User: Fold this.
Amino acid sequence: NAAILRRRSLDLVIVISPMSGPVRPPTDLYGASRWHAGRVARREVKALRESGTAVVVFRPGPAEQEAIGNDFMARDRVDQIVQQAFLGAGSFAARPDIRAILATFGMQRRT
Assistant:
């Protein structure tokens, strides 16, 4: 639903897309669901960026997807999923390019 923000003249949008998946072609129903969600998110983010809005997108990487598995609502692994999501999001936010974007908008970590 990031596309609805296009006309809002926002400086920064942070998109959290937990259902997004890899760009590679899907091999099963769950992969197709992730592929579709990722495709929609990429299209919406592209529209936001073309409107001049800075965008940071958090989506699951391979480790997060492995923790989630094919059950997006797995209660028996919620602690593992949350831990991996926390670590993955922290690593992503620490990347120099992402830190620079966040710092531009006053969201940098104070030391």
User: Anything to note?
Assistant: Residues 29-50 form the longest helix (22 residues). The mean pLDDT is 87.
